[in-house]
Every structure is written in structure tokens, then in C-alpha cells.
Write a structure and sequence with these properties.
disordered C terminus, alpha+beta, 4-stranded antiparallel beta sheet, 5-stranded antiparallel beta sheet
Length: about 1450
């Protein structure tokens, strides 16, 4: 940027009398045409407004949202329209914008209805979603200035003023036209009274904020009652059409601070200054900037003698106005030259009157936006650049925007610059430090999903954005929440495109500046205070923030009462956004809002009753009130206006019985949550009666215990509670209302005591009462109120004493003659001894060690002993609970209680009574709890053990033995205890395994367990085997030899040796004789499991085991062992003999015998024999194979030769099928001619009896034909697939390569960068191009066998998952255009493999080549035989394991005989 330009020569322009006269004459003509006298309107304000309304009929269609269309669209243009509405709402970065409240569907599309833009689109109906609208209401109001709009249109039509081109607003409104006229409109005092002022105040967090406040002082009326501008009079018409023809259209306007001067910039570069008081031309400047460029911006600074202008050449000039010796001059200096980058937006910092003394104003800051960056410079005291900020990446057609505003941050007010280009708004906070330097701090950015063409501050927190499709967005800056969105296409906004293109001077501008100007509307939007003026082609609109009251009333007019209350409450809490119209301290603001909310609530109540459906079901009416009434209750309680709620609102609701009921039920949640504590007596009475009538007794009780009882009729409530069994409420009323804590106890005791004393069982209702009584006593003794809260501290000691005295009374108040002593304690002990004693224990914990507390404790203990020990009607469990309680109290270190020790001896005798077998486990458990609670110190241990053994209390014995470390004796306790017998294994294992026991203790337990081993085996052989394996492995043979019971030995060995039992076989070291002994026992006790067990056992001798199985005639087991030994023929003979015996039995069956399972047995034996032959045929020669298969075939065919046998006739079909199975399986190992020859050599069939084997022979031939056809088809498919794959592979490898770009992907230079002899051009099939030297620098080349092999650098670096990333390269020598393929190797390189994989994927199925490869792999280690799926990992990767695998082959059709 040029620091300083040479001062341009200026000359004084004298006022041209003719020009002034023409201006005045034109103004007179315009005034007459509009029905007014020049500058002196004689009509009153009301008549004038009526007159203006009459004159503005030509734009009345704006009131109905009917846009005016200059050129009707053609059918072709409508059909060719593209709908890109979805693209508008794509959020690039939603993290910085609260999209929850963004109304992204407010309008389907938007139309830019400007004559200048050339981008008209069809209008669509406005729509709103209730999200942001219901949350914030209508934040802004867009109004048409009818008077100004009518006069602009009239001036264009009748005096050829031209279309409007620019606007500037202050106390006056100036509108420039295309024919060089400037129309000045004045406003009445109404606007001054309704000006929004900016005031600073302290928020709730103590920070300083700026807020706009509307002042309504006109006759005490509200803002809604008057239009913003009641009179819009034409004050001046500056210039003439003749001057307009010379200077062109007005392209920029600016009014100074005191509204005394107006600067006009023209499309041909001239600048004029006017006196707004007299309408005189003061200066006409033609040499302030280079000629032939249009004025894009002209701005007054806060210094009235200083202005800034920006022309279409992108340069910025400072204009200094002076008056010397009565001569007006203008000096110009260049601040920024367009040759350094074109500036298209400027914005000087303006300070309001109250901020004129701010220290930063002395620098006269100016922000400038070029096409690439933002600059902030200071004009004073000397020119200085304070900041530059580049845009980064952006759309070149987006419009740069700048806007200053003073904001309060950290208790100080400083200017903030907002700038954007595109969809991101940057905020820069500008501060001045003590040294005078200026610092710029970045603030949080605002990310949008639309491009902006205008940015305007409404106040320090609220900004208004206009996007490229003419939608206004109101945004809260701090939260970045979108408050409202409206469409302003009806404004028909004027665009400044022609000035940015400098069409008036021949279009001598850069293409970049002309592109930005397509959407430029800098001069069509002007802000003043908290109003924004929008200039349309035929109108002027003003947008203002609604006051808080207007926003609420706007919702009320739309019948959105709930939303209106919510919005008002947000104002009340100080959480609302864009607040206008609230001033004063917090208390005053809340009072004003509360009054308005009360009015709304009363209106809401009336509307609720009025809108109630008169007819229909009662459920419909209830639903109506349930939707409406809770809202009224909620806000009345939030405002703490219970007086309103229970007077006016309740009186209105009482007029409708349904509404009254819903109202009363709505109070319940607020009562339970503590938000509503008190209410009037009448409402409380109605509430209780309503709950009683609706049978909502639990709800009524819950409400009573949460209410202030001063509003209750105590006697009535107590009677009501007792009748309806509401004991909690009754206790609460007694306690809180009368400080009576004993009467509830007496009433409850009277109910539960009689049945308990009579020995009867209690009803469910009585049990509930008893439990409540216990909890109530516990609360009283602990100082807590029942059912919630705390007893007042001054009453706690008194309540405790009263309750204790009550409990230990000798007799009740109305005692009969036969009542036993201490009735209350006796009743509680009978009801629930354990819980009552727990209550006493908790009470004893809270007692202080004073004399009275000690006396109370001892006294209650004596009473307990007297009641329970001297009576026989208590169970052992109850007595045990008492002494357990006493033991715990006596075991405390600070114990002061005294209990006679003989009582404990009596309890021991009672619990260990051997004559009484009833409740044995209960007695033992009670005694165990007593001992564990510390009661053992009260007994002699030896006597205790003797009595426990005598009573068979083995848990007591275990407890005592463990104290004495006699762990071996505990084993006897477990073995004798029928309940815990099996726990002995865990106990022995823990003692022997867990550290912490001495070696002597472990040895004694080990020895004891060894002595009882047989008993342990009888108890659980599996657990005993596990224990022996872990701890007694060395004694295994001795344990086996000592076992006399053979079946027990069998169970033990099976648990020990069977791997399926879960015992780790690596820990077992047994001799083969033990395994053989187990097999012998297994043959005897479970012969069906011998074969299965032989397959899993390892350590046994084959000869001895074979003898054992043969002795028990287990043929299959013997066959398995012979095969395992290697005697295949012997194993086969065993199976063959078994098969022949079963066939013999089959042929000897009578005709009358029914078909049995013999055929199934024969089939099972045959399948096992065939499997034996198949397993071993691979390792045998041809003669040995025939020795297996032919006897088997002969055995199956021999029964069929016996044609006279009736059994063979009956089963002939089954036997033929079985014989066919033998033939099919042996065909894989025996040649077919050999089989046929062997059959034909048979003497029976050699004599011409071939009819019986015709089916067998034909079946063999069919199988042969099918396999031959399958082989030929497979061979043809393989050849076809291989040929097709190789052809496509060759074509893909030899295909020419097409680079994606003409530069190296590493150095980013043209591939013709250098012509070095060693440098080559490498082109990959992926389309990337490199220099060979660049690839070598990235280590992407490898020399193998004298040939360089290259890998693509970009593909290799982006593929980090280990996939194939190398590409077969092509070398292009120097500048030659031919591609030389490298010499190929015998194996496929990675590129060919990748190409082949792509070809395979085209199949949409498994490759036939892969199928054949899999088949050959699975048969690689075998002779021809049945298909067997390989095990392990290969099975997992097999193509046959794929769930989508399908074999698209079919067997030959079956031909019936």
C-alpha cells in the first residue's frame, strides 16, 4: 500500500446560480405534483398521512406480498428453472452455530427480486417452524415507508427523477436516483420520541452490557399504538436532471453527524457537497481521484472536515474540507492505490455522542476490505497501518463486508470490527493500551451455511445478516443463536452492480471487481441507531427490533399464549435475546414484566374457559383443561403470585367443575416438590374433598404431609385420615399441628396389640400399621420428623424422653385387669423382634454418656429380659435376637450395661436342648449370631463345644474349632453336616492352597482328608478326583489299591482319566495298567462307551486292551484297536464277521415276523466297514484293496443269491441299495472293469442269471457317464476362463496411460521442467505423473535385476492399511510421446495381480479357477477319493465356506427303469 500520495490540486467550486435555481424549481414542481407546497406542508399530520396513503395506491399490492414483475417469465424459462434449494442449507461447520434453533426450513426458496441483479426466481409461500419463533417470538418488524415510497415512484414517473440507486439515513433520509437527483425526506418528532437509545448496565453476572432501550413518551402511549414514522415529508430535492446527464447516477451518499452536510458520489466520478439546511450546493469536486472511475463509497468520518471515498479503480482517498478566506476547498490524498489490490469496501469508525471521548477515537480508524485482505489504518495523528488480515480461501464472487460497533467486554467498552467474505464472520476486538498502541484480538467466529451480502449491527449483542438469496437472519452474537429469519424479496432490493462494473465510464474495471459487484448492495442498505433502511426499486422499508412488550403482544395476537408466557418469563429471568424496551434496575424490570404476565395469565384463564368444548365426552373437556391449566399454575408459582392463583384464577376455574378438578390435581406436583407450601383454607378443603371423591387417597396423604398445617382443619383431617387409613398424614398432623407425639402411638398400638396378645396372625393392613409404628418410633428417638424433615431442635430431648417413657409404661392407659406388664414393649417384640431391637440399637448409638441416658438404657434392657426370659411364648429366634443384641451392647468398649451371666447359660441350655428337634437350623443360626456378636465371652468354651456336638450344631463346632486352630476337626464337622457335606472339598482345597496356615496345620488337614478319602469319593467322585489330582497325586496308586468297591473305583477312574470331565491330564501321571484297569471296568459297567473312550484315552497297551475287548466281545472296539495297531485286514475281518452274522439273522427270519431294526443295524455296521476300507485304501496296493472290497461286496450280494428265502425277498430292495453303496464307494479305489469281471466270474451269474444285478450294473454305468460329463464340462470351463482372464489381463497391461495432470505430483512443476539425461517421466496407471528423480528422492524406486521398479508416491502414502499400492510403471523417455513397456517376468507383478483381482470381482461369484484350485488343494495329499474339507485355517479361508457359494452345475437327469 502506498503510504502517501502526492496531494492533488484542488480548486474552489463556486455556487452556480442557474444550477441552484433549477434545483429549486424542480423541487417546486415535484412538490406540486405530490399535492404539497415546497417545504411548507399546510395539512395536519392526520390529513397528511391520509393524503400520503391516497398517493401511494400504486404500491398497495406490497401489503399483500404480491411482487411486481417487470418482464413476465416465459414457459421455456419456467421449465428450465433449476431447484437448488437444498444446497442453500448445507452447514459446513455446525459446531460454532447453535443449529437447534435455526429455522432452516422457514422458506423453501428465496428470490432476489432486484432489477439490477438479473437473478429473479419464483416466489414461494412463506413458512415458519415453531422452534425459534415460539422461543423468541418475532424479534424484528419490517415496515414499508409508504409516504417516501409513494413520492419516489411519483418522482420517477412525473419528473423523470429515475430509479433509486442509493440511500443514506440519519435524522433525515436521503435517496439518490439514477438521473442524478438527491431526494431528502424529513421525519416528524414521532420518530425522535421512539428512537432506540443505547445504554450500558450491569447484568446479573456483574459484567457491563450495552442494551437498546425504546422510550415511549408520546402522551403515555405504547409503541404499538403509533407508526414509527408518522410523517414522511419531502424536504429537499437536490440537483437536476441536466447535471445528472453530465455526472451520471448517484452511486453513493453520506450524511455527516449533525445532518448539516450531504456528500453525493456519482457514477462518472464526480462528488458534490450540499447544505441540508438551505439546499445549496457547497462543493463540486471533480479531481479528488483519477477520472473515469465511479464512486463506490463515500463516507464522512466523525471529523466533519474529513471524508473517505473509494472508486471503481480500487483506490481509497482522504478528502479534507477547508474554508479559507470564505473560499471552500477540498484537498485529497491517496490512502490506498488500486494497483496494490482493489479495495471494494470501506468503513470508518463512528462513535456515538456519549462515546466521543473514548481514547481510541483520536486515531480516526478506517477499515478497508480489498479482494484479498482486510486493513485497519489510523488517519490521525499520522497515517499508520495497525492491522492486516488475509481472507484465506473464499468464493471470488462473494462480497466483502465491514461493520464497526462498540461492545462491552470485560467491563470495558471498545470497538469491534466484524468482517466477512462468504459464510464466515470474523470479529476483531480493537483496544488501546496505556502506551498508545492499538491491539487487535480475534474473537469467536460465526460460521454460517449461507453467503452474506450485508452485515449490520443492531446493538452490541444482536446482528442482522442478509444472505445472497435475500433472507434476513437475526443472530445473537454471543450465543451465535439464530433468533429469526424472514424473506425480503418483496423489497426488490437495489444492487450496485453497474457502478462496480463502471458502466457509466466504459466498464474499465478488473474482472475480479466486476464479479464481486454482482451482489453488491452497499448503498442500498443504511442503518441509523437501531433501524435499518432497505432501498428497493420502488420503495423504502425500515427494519427495527421489536420491544419486549411488542414481541409478547405479537404472540398474543396470533393466539400463541403459551409461547407468549414463555417469552415473557425469559425476559423476567434475563435470559432473552435482543431485548429492547427494558430499563432501570433488575427489580423494576421484573416488576414491569410481572404485571404484564399477570394480565396475560388472567386473559389465558378467560380464554381457557371460553374455548372449552361445551359438548362431547368428559374426557375431551378434561384433556382440554389438562393442556391449559398447568401452564397458568406454573407461571403463577414462578411469579410467586399465590394470591392471584387462589383468588381470581381459582374463582374463575370454580365456575366449571371439570376445570376446578383439573386445577386441584395440578397443585399436587408443586406441593410434593416443595414449590407450594401454603394455600387458603377453602382451597385446601376443596383439594381434600376432591381427592376423597376421586378415591385418590395416596395422593391426598402425600399432599397433607407436605403442606403447612395452619391451613388445615386438624380435627377434620385426623378423622379423615383415620377413616381412610392414612397413617402417615395422621401422624404428621398430630406432630406438626399439636406437638403431640404419643397419641399416634396409642392409636396404632390399640389396633395391633389385641391380635398379637391373643396369638393370632395379623392382617396385611395391621402389618403395615406395625411397620409404620416401628419407623415412627425410630424417627422420634433419632430426632427426625415422620415421614420427612426434622423435629425442631428444642423439642428433640423432650420427644425422646416422652417416647421412652411411653414404651416402658407398666400398663396402658385403658388397661384391663388381665393385661400383662409392659404391654408396649411386649407388643413390639411379638410383632418384629429383630427390627425393634435394631431400633433400640440405633438409639443407643445416639445416646450421650450422661446419667439419664445410662439409666434409660439399663432400664430398657432389664425390661426386655423380664419380658422375654420369663415367658415361654417367644421363639428361639426371638430369644436369640435379644441376646445377640445384648452381646453387641456388652462388647462395646464404653459399655455401661449389666446383664446377669446366668441368663446367657440359660439361653445356651434353651438353644442346645437335645430333646427338642424342632427349629434345629433356626436355633443353630441364632446361637451362631450370638457368638459372632461377641457373646462368646459370656460362655465357657469347653462346655459350649460339648453342648454343640451333642445338639449337632456343626457350624458352632466349626466356629469354635477355628478359634482354636483345630482345622482337621472341621473336616468331621462338614462330613457330619448333611446340609454342607459337599463344601468339604472347597474347605480342604483352601486350607492346603491358601497361605496363612502353618505347615503342621496343613499336614494335619492333609492326613485327615487322606483318612476319609473313601468317604469323600462316595460323596462326589468328580470333586474327589479333582482334589486328589491337585494335592494327593503321589498317593494315587495307594488310594486305588485301597478301594474295595469296584463300581466306586470305576466312577473314580472315569472322573480321573476321562478328559471330558475337565481335569487337567497334564497333572496326572498314571501307569498303563491303571488305564487298562479302567478299560476293563468300562467294558463291564458301560460297554457302549468303550469305543468312544478308547478314542480319547492315550496311555494303554494295544495287545492287552485287544484281549480285554475280545474277552467282552466288543467287536467295534476290537476292530478300532486292530486298525490302530496296523492290522487293517484283521480289523476288516472282525467287522465283516459281525456284518455276516447280522445278515444271517436277517435271512433266517420267518415270514410272519415283523420288520425289526435289523436292517438299520446292518446299514450302520456296513457304513462303519466302508469307512474302515476308505480310510486305509489309500495306503494299500491294488491286491490288498481287492482283498478288502470284494469280500465286502460278496457278503452283501450273498443274501440276494438265496432267491428262495422269504426274508431276502422282503428286504431285497434294502439290500440292493446297500450293495449299491458298496459299489459306489469301491469304484473310487477299484477299476470298473475289475468289478464287472469279478461279478461275471461268479458261478451263479456266469450261468445267465444277470437279471438280479442288472440294476447294479446300470447304476455303475450311469455314475460313470455322469463323472465323464462332469470332467469334460469342468475342463472346458477351465480352458474358457483361463483364456478369457489372460486376454483381459493382457489388454489391461498394454493399455495406454492417461495422466491426470501435466505436472509432477511431488515438485508440482511441469513435466518438461528439465531435459537432463538421467531424468525420466514416470506415468502410473492410476494417472499420477512424476519425475524419476523426484521419485528417487522419496525412495519410491527399487532396482531389481537391472530394471527399476517404481511405486506411486501419492497412492503409496495414502494407503496405510497394507493394501496393494504399487503400480506397474511406464517409462517415457525425454519429450518422446511413446510409452515403452518394461520387460515382463514369468511371475505376475503387483500391478498385474491387482488387475487380475479386479477381473475376478467382475464375476459376481466365486471364480471357477478358484474352485478347481481349492479342489486340487484338498486332494493334494490323497489318492482319488471323497471330498474332505481341510482342517484349521485353510478351512476358514476355503471358498466352500463362503455363505454365498453356489455350484451352478446339475447332475444328469434321472432315468426311470
Amino acid at each position: 500500500m502506498e503510504k502517501m500520495a502526492d496531494e492533488l490540486k484542488t480548486e474552489t467550486e463556486n455556487l452556480n446560480p442557474e444550477q441552484s435555481m433549477s434545483s429549486t424549481g424542480l423541487e417546486d414542481d415535484l412538490g406540486k405534483l405530490l399535492g404539497q407546497e415546497t417545504l411548507l406542508p399546510k395539512l395536519g399530520s392526520i390529513d397528511l398521512e391520509r393524503e400520503l396513503d391516497a398517493k401511494s395506491e400504486l404500491i398497495d399490492d406490497k401489503e399483500f406480498n404480491i411482487p411486481q414483475v417487470d418482464t413476465p417469465p416465459t414457459l421455456e424459462s419456467i421449465l428450465n428453472e433449476t431447484d437448488d434449494e437444498e444446497e442453500t442449507f448445507v452447514l459446513e461447520d455446525p459446531s460454532l452455530l447453535n443449529i437447534d434453533n435455526i429455522d432452516t426450513h422457514s422458506y423453501d426458496t428465496s428470490s432476489v427480486a432486484s432489477s439490477d441483479s438479473g437473478d429473479r426466481a419464483h416466489m414461494k409461500r412463506k413458512k415458519r417452524l415453531p422452534d425459534s419463533f415460539s422461543l423468541h417470538g418475532s424479534v424484528i418488524r419490517l415496515s414499508l415507508l409508504k409516504g417516501i415510497s409513494a413520492q419516489i415512484v411519483s418522482a420517477a414517473d412525473k419528473v423523470d427523477a429515475g430509479l433509486p440507486t442509493a440511500i443514506a439515513a440519519s435524522n433525515l433520509i436521503a435517496v439518490g436516483t439514477s438521473h442524478g437527483l438527491a431526494l431528502i425526506f424529513g421525519l416528524t418528532k414521532m420518530r425522535q420520541d421512539l428512537m432506540f437509545q443505547t445504554r450500558s448496565f450491569k447484568n446479573q453476572s456483574g459484567e457491563t452490557e450495552m442494551c437498546s432501550v425504546d422510550i415511549c413518551v408520546v402522551f403515555g402511549t405504547k409503541l404499538d399504538d403509533f407508526p414509527i414514522y408518522q410523517n414522511q415529508a419531502l424536504r429537499l430535492c437536490l440537483g437536476s436532471t441536466a447535471v445528472g446527464a453530465q455526472y451520471g447516477a448517484i452511486s453513493a451518499l453520506s450524511i455527516n453527524n449533525d445532518c448539516s452536510r450531504l456528500l453525493c458520489g456519482f457514477a462518472k466520478g464526480q462528488i458534490t457537497m450540499w447544505d441540508l439546511a438551505s439546499g445549496k450546493l457547497l462543493r463540486s469536486i471533480t479531481d479528488a481521484h483519477p477520472p473515469g472511475t465511479a464512486i463506490l463509497h463515500i463516507k464522512f468520518t466523525d471529523d466533519p472536515t474529513l471524508a473517505i471515498c473509494n472508486d471503481s479503480g480500487g483506490s481509497v482517498f482522504e478528502l479534507s474540507f477547508k474554508r479559507v478566506m470564505g473560499v471552500r476547498t477540498c484537498e485529497s490524498r491517496c490512502l490506498f492505490s488500486g494497483s496494490k489490490g482493489e479495495v471494494c469496501c470501506i468503513e470508518p469508525l463512528h462513535a456515538k455522542t456519549e462515546l466521543r471521548d473514548h481514547p481510541i477515537t483520536q486515531y480516526s480508524l478506517l477499515a478497508m476490505a480489498s479482494l484479498t485482505k482486510i486493513l485497519v489504518i489510523g488517519l490521525k495523528p499520522s497515517l499508520k497501518v495497525w492491522m492486516t488480515f488475509p481472507y484465506g480461501r473464499m468464493d471470488p464472487s462473494s462480497v466483502p463486508l465491514l461493520a464497526w460497533h462498540f461492545v462491552a467486554v470485560q467491563n470495558s467498552v471498545n470497538p469491534m470490527l466484524a468482517f466477512c467474505r462468504g459464510d464466515v464472520v470474523h470479529f476483531l476486538l480493537v483496544k488501546r493500551d496505556d502506551s498508545g498502541a492499538i491491539h487487535v484480538t480475534k474473537q469467536k467466529q460465526l460460521h454460517l451455511h449461507y453467503d452474506l451480502i450485508n452485515f449490520t449491527w443492531m446493538n452490541s449483542r444482536t446482528v442482522v445478516l442478509l444472505d445472497s438469496v435475500e433472507k434476513l437472519h437475526v443472530i445473537d452474537r454471543q450465543t451465535q443463536e439464530e433468533l429469526e429469519t424472514i424473506e425480503i424479496s418483496e423489497v426488490q432490493l437495489v444492487y450496485n452492480s453497474s457502478h462496480f462494473k463502471s458502466l457509466a465510464t466504459g466498464g474499465n474495471v478488473s474482472q475480479a471487481l466486476a464479479l464481486v459487484g454482482e451482489k453488491a448492495c452497499y448503498q442500498s442498505i443504511s442503518s441509523c441507531g437501531s433501524q435499518i433502511f432497505y432501498l428497493g426499486t420502488k420503495s423504502v422499508h425500515v427494519m427495527t427490533l421489536r420491544s419486549w412488550r411488542e414481541r409478547v403482544d405479537h404472540l398474543l395476537k396470533q393466539e400463541c399464549l403459551t409461547e407468549a408466557l414463555a417469552l415473557a418469563w425469559s425476559f423476567y429471568e434475563g435470559k432473552a435475546k435482543a431485548v429492547v424496551g427494558l430499563s432501570g434496575d433488575v427489580g423494576k424490570r421484573k416488576a414491569v414484566i410481572a404485571d404484564r404476565m399477570v394480565e396475560i395469565l388472567l386473559h389465558y384463564t378467560d380464554r381457557t374457559l371460553k374455548k372449552c368444548p361445551d359438548q362431547g365426552k368428559i374426557q375431551v373437556m378434561e384433556q382440554h383443561f389438562q393442556d391449559m391449566v398447568p401452564v397458568i399454575v406454573e407461571y403463577c408459582l414462578l411469579l410467586q403470585r399465590t394470591d392471584l392463583l387462589f383468588s381470581q384464577v381459582y374463582d374463575k376455574m370454580s365456575e366449571n367443575s371439570v376445570a376446578k378438578g383439573v386445577f386441584l390435581e395440578c397443585l399436587e406436583p408443586y406441593i410434593l416438590s416443595g414449590k407450594l407450601i401454603g394455600m387458603t383454607a377453602q382451597v385446601m378443603k376443596d383439594l381434600l374433598l376432591h381427592f376423597q371423591d376421586r378415591n385418590l387417597l395416596e395422593n391426598m396423604e402425600a399432599c397433607i404431609v407436605h403442606m403447612d398445617i395452619t391451613s388445615l382443619d386438624i380435627q377434620q383431617v385426623v378423622l379423615l385420615c383415620w377413616e381412610n387409613h392414612l397413617y402417615d398424614a395422621m401422624i404428621y398432623v398430630y406432630n406438626s399441628g399439636m406437638n403431640d407425639f404419643l397419641s399416634p402411638m396409642e392409636r396404632l398400638f390399640k389396633v395391633i396389640a389385641p391380635p398379637l396378645s391373643a396369638g393370632k396372625s395379623l392382617t396385611d393392613e395391621q402389618v403395615v400399621m406395625g411397620n409404620k409404628l416401628l419407623v415412627y418410633i425410630s424417627c422420634c428417638l433419632a430426632g427426625r420428623a415422620y415421614p420427612l424433615g426434622d423435629i425442631p431442635e428444642d423439642l428433640v430431648p423432650l420427644v425422646k424422653n416422652q417416647v421412652f417413657e411411653f414404651l416402658i409404661r407398666l400398663h396402658s392407659a385403658e388397661a384391663s385387669t388381665d393385661e400383662e406388664v409392659y404391654p408396649y414393649v411386649r407388643t413390639l417384640l411379638h410383632f418384629d423382634t429383630r427390627e425393634f431391637l435394631n431400633v433400640l440399637a440405633l438409639t443407643f448409638e445416639d445416646f450421650k454418656n450422661d446419667k439419664q441416658a445410662v439409666e434409660y438404657q439399663q432400664r430398657i434392657v432389664d425390661i426386655l429380659l423380664k419380658v422375654m426370659v420369663e415367658n415361654s411364648d417367644f421363639t428361639p429366634s426371638q430369644v436369640g435376637c435379644l441376646f445377640t443384641f445384648l452381646a453387641r451392647q456388652l462388647a462395646k468398649p464404653n459399655n455401661t450395661l449389666f446383664v446377669n451371666r446366668t441368663l446367657f447359660d440359660q439361653v445356651l441350655e434353651f438353644l442346645c436342648s437335645p430333646d427338642d428337634d424342632s427349629r434345629h437350623s433356626e436355633r443353630q443360626q441364632v446361637l451362631l449370631e450370638l457368638l459372632q456378636a461377641g457373646g462368646i465371652v459370656q460362655f465357657e468354651e469347653n462346655r459350649l463345644i460339648q453342648m454343640a456336638e451333642k445338639a449337632e450344631f456343626y457350624q458352632i463346632c466349626e466356629f469354635m474349632y477355628e478359634r482354636e486352630h483345630h482345622y482337621d476337626r472341621i473336616i468331621d464337622c462338614y462330613l457330619r453336616d448333611p446340609v454342607r457335606k459337599e463344601d468339604v472339598f472347597n474347605y480342604i482345597h483352601n486350607i492346603l492352597s491358601i497361605p496363612g496356615y502353618s505347615a503342621e496345620e496343613k499336614h494335619s488337614v492333609w492326613q485327615k482328608a487322606l483318612e476319609h478319602m473313601e468317604e469323600l469319593l462316595l460323596l462326589s467322585p468328580s470333586k474327589a478326583a479333582d482334589l486328589i489330582t491337585t494335592h494327593f497325586n503321589d498317593q494315587l496308586e495307594g488310594i486305588i489299591n485301597n478301594l474295595q468297591d469296584q463300581f466306586l473305583l470305576f466312577q473314580f477312574l472315569r472322573s480321573l482319566l476321562d478328559p471330558r470331565e475337565g481335569i487337567n491330564q497334564d497333572l496326572i501321571h498314571v501307569s498303563p495298567c491303571i488305564t487298562e484297569q479302567f478299560i476293563e471296568l468300562l467294558c463291564h459297567y458301560s460297554p457302549d462307551q468303550v469305543l468312544e473312550m478308547l478314542q480319547v484315552l492315550e496311555f494303554y497297551r494295544l495287545e492287552e486292551t485287544i484281549q480285554t475287548t475280545q474277552k467282552h466281545q466288543l467287536h467295534e472296539a476290537s476292530s478300532y484297536l486292530l486298525e490302530k495297531k496296523g492290522d487293517v485286514h484283521g480289523a476288516f475281518l472282525v467287522m465283516l464277521e459281525q456284518l455276516q452274522s447280522k445278515l444271517l439273522v436277517l435271512t433266517q427270519e420267518d415270514e410272519n415276523s415283523t420288520q425289526s431294526d435289523s436292517v438299520k443295524d446292518i446299514e450302520a455296521t456296513l457304513l462303519k466297514t466302508i469307512a474302515l476300507c476308505q480310510r486305509n485304501s489309500h495306503n494299500l496296493n491294488q491286491q490288498q484293496r481287492e482283498a478288502l472290497w470284494f469280500p465286502l461286496l460278496e457278503a452283501m450280494m450273498s443274501p440276494q443269491k438265496l432267491s428262495g428265502s422269504s426274508a431276502s425277498c422282503r428286504y431285497s430292495e434294502h439290500l440292493k441299495n446297500l450293495t449299491m453303496q458298496v459299489l459306489n464307494n469301491m469304484a473310487a479305489f477299484i477299476a470298473l472293469p475289475s468289478i464287472l469281471q469279478r461279478i461275471l466270474q461268479d458261478p451263479v451269474y456266469g450261468k445267465g442269471k444277470l437279471g438280479e444285478i442288472q440294476g447294479l450294473v446300470l447304476g455303475m454305468l450311469d455314475t460313470f457317464n455322469y463323472e465323464q460329463t462332469l470332467l469334460e464340462t469342468t475342463t472346458n470351463l477351465l480352458n474358457h476362463d483361463l483364456h478369457w482372464s489372460l486376454c483381459n489381463l493382457r489388454a489391461s497391461v498394454t493399455r495406454g496411460l492417461t495422466p491426470k495432470q501435466d505436472y509432477c505430483c511431488i515438485c508440482l512443476q511441469q513435466y518438461k521442467r528439465r531435459q537432463e539425461t538421467s531424468d525420466e517421466i514416470i506415468v502410473f496407471s492410476c494417472g499420477h505423473l512424476y519425475h524419476s528423480l523426484c521419485l528417487l528422492s522419496k525412495e519410491c524406486g527399487l532396482e531389481t535385476q537391472g530394471l527399476m521398479r517404481w511405486t506411486c508416491y501419492k497412492c503409496n502414502s495414502s494407503n496405510k492399511a497394507g493394501k496393494l499400492c504399487e503400480s506397474f510403471s511406464e517409462l517415457k523417455k525425454g519429450s518422446s510421446t511413446s510409452l515403452a513397456q518394461a520387460s515382463s517376468e514369468s511371475a505376475l507383478d503387483p500391478q498385474q495381480i491387482q488387475a487380475f483381482d479386479q477381473l475376478c470381482r467382475l464375476y459376481r461369484g466365486t471364480s471357477r479357477l478358484a474352485l478347481l484350485t481349492e479342489l486340487s488343494r484338498s486332494r493334494g495329499g490323497e489318492r482319488p477319493g471323497p471330498l474332505s474339507v481341510s482342517q484349521g485355517d485353510s478351512a476358514l479361508s476355503s471358498v466352500f465356506q463362503n455363505e454365498n457359494f453356489q455350484l451352478h452345475l446339475a447332475p444328469p437327469p434321472f432315468t426311470e427303469e
